[in-house]
Amino acid sequence: NDTGLVLWYDLGDESGVGADPINKTPDLSGNGNTGSLGNSSIKTAPLANSTHCVIGSCLNFSTVNGSQMHVIANPVSNFPTSAITAALWLRANSGDDGTVLSYAVSGTHNEFRLEQVNNIKVLFNGQTLSTGVSVADGLWHHLAVTWRSSDGLALLYKDGALAYGDFIESGSPI
Question: Who's near 24: CB < 8 A, 6+ residues apart?
Fold first, then answer.
């Protein structure tokens, strides 16, 4: 498509959550990057929730039986390698931890990743930016991270305001 949108999952649409233990969530960008919703090792999916959401319903990605819930799309067609913006809504508590968003390629899990809600870390090509930004307060937050390879500028926005900015090595695509 000509908008630059690569994938878009409406995880607040309960119609995509059915009886199948590993559900599929459609890619609304039109690129066909359908995601598997849940955790195949324990044959379950995140729980639908309509009481603590920003608007309508949402999914709870808490750990179930010691296993993380997730959405996996593999492969992802048209993934950008020289500039990216990723945006999401997130509600986390201080005890929550782990990876919020990840893009990996064969041989590495850290091509592009957001992790640790108490002090958000942004990883590009194995380089880590520790932002000092926290969203671990039990409230909903909108996060957006942008990065461009040309000069290495990475920006993190929290609730529409710039919360962190720094440079990493320029010229290295993800």
Answer: 16, 34, 35, 36, 37
